[in-house]
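note to self: dont lose this again. the chain is below, predicted strucutre after it. 323 aa total, dont forget to put it in the shared folder this time
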Amino acid sequence: MHVFVTGGTGQVGSYLIPGLIAAGHEVVALARSDASAAAASALGARIRRGNLADLDGLKAAAAESDGVIHLGYRAELLSSGGITALGDSELSIVLAFGEALAGTGKPLVAAGSIGAPTNLGRAGPLLAPASLGRPATEDDPALPCGPMDAGTLVARNIVETAVVGLAEKGVRSSVVRIPEIMHSTTDNAGFLPLLIGLAKEKGIVGYPGDGANRWAAVHTRDLATVFRLALEKGAAGRSWHAVADESIPYREIAEAIGSRLKLPAVPIPADVLMLPGYFGFLANLVTLDTPASNAITRQTLGWTPTQPGLFADMDNGHYFPAS
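---
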């Protein structure tokens, strides 16, 4: 299959491109810069120069392909227009792909986020840890996800719903939902390095309230495999859950970081979560309760995680290098 990939040199793309090629696919990667072109070429992809702002170029690339995996996003918009501008951009991109692939039955696989059924309809800041609820499933519609503000909810829900809705236009479209933590030796800007850096700065490892709220996690290589399988055999109009560790209490994540840094893990009371103290702008995120089931993804796509789980991978030498 001739596959067009955006975001091919990012954390997921660096595993996805070699995985696609090993499975017999030909990959064409979008590259905005010489550096990105060189990196994608080194992974084995052919290069298409361009950028995500050029919708006509994206439509042309999609029309020439047998399928599209969309991982990239316009990060520069976050500083100029915030999450709303980013959401508008993402919607324009997926609709452009949909226009190019309409009526072909070709696959379009886009990235989404794990949500929390208990938080459905809550668009304001969470001043205390979210109430615990059932794990999200692949059959749930696009759900609220963090950080929990109205702009994020609207942007993510609209984009995921738009991708799934393209199935009605003859596109084999699906969404791969990603948990808060995707871990690997290429993880330099995810939430785990952020939490580790925060702990080093503060001298303690904080967790919200009693720390019973749950996060999910996945190794990036296993995540990339879900994207490939969704491309190859995922049904139209479906969502997939790329989660290996389905439900980890946040307190256990804090304690695991603390044990490796030799720092105490301590509760941050609910009434100070939003103050300019330990968590700062992360307060809305760390209170989320987002356990997720992967049962449908495993059964339907035949996916089995093979890489180390979160706690084992913390000892890969990347997150806590030997001094």
